Amino acid sequence: LIKLLSAILFSAVAVFLIFKIWGYPKSRNWKKWSVSSIFILSLTMWMSLYSWEFGIVYGFCSLALIAWATIFYYRKTPVQNPQILPYIKGTISYKTTLRVMALSFISIILAGTVSGCIALLLPIYLNVDMANSLVGGLFLFLFLWPASMVLILSRTSLVKLTINSALCAIVSVVFVYLGRV
Amino acid sequence: MGMKLDKKTVKSGFKAHSWLGLFSAALLYLISVSGILSVFYEEFDRWEQPDVPEYNVFSPQHMSASIEKYITLLGKTPESIYIVLPTEGFPRTHITDGIDEWYLDSNGEFKDVPMVPWITMVRELHGHLLLPHIIGMSLVGLMGVLCLALIISGVVAHPSIFKDAFLWRSGKKNQRIEQMDLHNRIGVWGLPFHFMMAFTGAFMGLGAVLMALTSLALFSGDPEDVIDAIYGQDPVTEQQALNVNFQQAFLTLKENQPEVTPIYIVLHKAGTPEQLLEIAATAPGRLAYSELYRFNANGEWLDQQGLINGAIGAQVAYSTYRLHFGHYHSNWVKLLYGIMGIAFTYLIVSGINIWLARRKHQTWVNSLWSGWVMGTLIAFASSCWMRLLGFNPEVIFFSTLAAVVTISIFGKGHVKMVNIFYMALAINILLIPIVHAIKFDLSVFNSIQCSIHIATIISGIGLAGLTYKKTRRLESL
């Protein structure tokens, strides 16, 4: 219990210092290094008290909980007047629906295919332990897929993107095939 | 800390964030609520079937007789037989082959069959949305990927998210700004946890599909090849005694690895010369689900699988389950996960609420969303107490959800309707301990039953009080 309380206290101090340096109520002397150091110190404290595997989770969660409590305590009052939104009869636009379907297809299927193929290249071409390269490949895939999804969804030229993604997918598939052969 | 992103990038990031949120919110919400309940599945399991014997130690001397009786009851010898040992979170022993299952008392006598349809439904809803396994799990995994994309786009879309890390303009008059600030604050401080949840969820959900695809691309097409490549193969044993010496195996384990805690045993190919005994045990300070220690029929040490000291890839892959569900170290971790899970669920709900408020008008979509949000909670609560009366929880869950969504869309007076839903939720939550107390003898009650009853009573009364206050305020306007 003493261990736990001291770690919580350290996180609270970390949040307090971040809060003071960061910007409530007036000061904005934001210094990257100082906040990063406090964060790292707090996490290190948790990791030294428990194992690093547990400590990192506890460290991040305790910082979040204490920060939320601070935010709740120092919340500001609103400056605008309330707005009552009128109720209108909504309809479904087929154009929008088709656009959503196209975007979803491109962002999920194409981004997934390209990312999957790139991730497969890791175990094929990287000459390391199979377990490590396979899990590394799976993890790489889980980073690449959402990132490429965001990239696709944030671009407006759908046609250009579709062509580029399809080309990437084909090239990646060829590389995977060649690697396997 | 303001990130230096140009306006165009921020705008496009915001667009992607909105798209992804709208696309995934409904299912993410369902997965998130069921996930919070699933964190406490051991407690709900004990609560739903309270009259099963509980104890802390199951002696290895009863294992042979229990396995023999299990084989007799089934009328065949399954490929693998598991005896799951009592733990701090779940002090009950059960024997299973993955299909047929019985609880055992501390003397190895067969007791009840597990009968926990409500928490099973909750877990299956979280794991595969009650769809056929491979489709459902892939869909849940895809939701994890979409959640990761939401986190990435959320950071890109809000360049001042770190700078304003403590800002919350709250109050009763401007709900959109309040929700927006709280959404961003919960998002930024909880980012590592949300990322971890989404990542491990995606990994577990897509695991089967990814392994199948990897085996097609790199191996012979059998997913077992990928599993063997990551976790290693089972050793081959031959020409052994037919009776397994469990006591000797446990003694050998204690001598070789005194710090580990056994959680289950598996007997492969029971009664044959190739039989293999595995004892799964948790190691202190480790997230890996377990390490598997292998023994021959005489209880002699063969090897360990290397899940806590082998390839880093295998260790990482085997740690995702405990990391996702918070089942490690202490029962307090579950509570921590519960609170963080509620924050994550709030992110989903407030995200859509902000998008709806930005439209400057209301349509049936507003009603649909509030119906879905409230309907899910009411459906979980009502299916819980109605299951205790013998109803099928899945039927109750989906019919309640459908009813609430329909009433929400076609009912008149959106705000009033939401208040009625809140009151319905409070009543359903309060019915849970009442029906449970009526159905089960109070003599079987322990700390788990009491904790769940107190939690439901407090949340039910609290919710009813808040709704009453809210309704009174609305009437006075």
Can you put this structure into words, describing what you see?
The complex is a heterodimer of chains A (181) and B (477). Chain A is 77% helix and 0% strand. Chain A has helices spanning 2-22, 32-49, 52-73, 94-125, 130-153, 158-180. In chain A, α2 packs across α3 (52-73) and α4 packs parallel to α6 (158-180). The longest helix of chain A has 32 residues, at 94-125. Chain A is flat, with a radius of gyration of 24 Å. The mean pLDDT of chain A is 78. By secondary structure, chain B is of the alpha+beta class. Chain B is 61% helix and 8% strand. In chain B, strands 3-2-1-4-5-6-7 form a seven-stranded antiparallel sheet, covered by helices on one side. In chain B, a hairpin with a 4-residue loop joins β2 (93-96) and β3 (101-104). In chain B, α1 runs antiparallel to α4 (117-128), α13 (364-388) runs antiparallel to α14 and α13 runs parallel beside α15 (414-439). At the A-B interface, α1, α3, α4 and α5 of A face α1, α5, α6, α7 and α8 of B.
Task: Considering residues with a beta carbon less than 8 A from a beta carbon on another chain, report the largest interface and each chain's count.
Answer: A-B, 74 and 82 residues
User: What's the helix-strand series of chain A?
Assistant: HHHHHH
Shape of chain B: globular
Tell me the β content of chain B: 5-15%
Radius of gyration of chain A: 24 Å
Oligomer designation: heterodimer
What would the keywords be for this entry?
heterodimer, A: 181 residues, mainly alpha, 0% strand, B: 477 residues, alpha+beta, seven-stranded antiparallel beta sheet, 7 strands, 61% helix, globular
Per-chain topology:
The complex is a heterodimer of chains A (181) and B (477).
Chain A: H1 2-22, H2 32-49, H3 52-73, H4 94-125, H5 130-153, H6 158-180
Helix pairs in contact in A: 1-2, 1-3, 2-3, 4-5, 4-6
Chain B: H1 7-39, H2 41-48, H3 63-74, E1 80-84, E2 93-96, E3 101-104, H4 117-128, H5 133-157, H6 175-189, H7 191-218, H8 223-231, H9 246-256, E4 261-268, E5 276-282, E6 291-295, E7 301-304, H10 312-317, H11 320-325, H12 332-358, H13 364-388, H14 393-410, H15 414-439, H16 447-476
Antiparallel strand pairs in B: 1-2, 1-4, 2-3, 4-5, 5-6, 6-7
Helix pairs in contact in B: 1-4, 1-5, 1-12, 1-13, 2-4, 4-13, 5-7, 6-12, 7-8, 12-13, 13-14, 13-15, 15-16
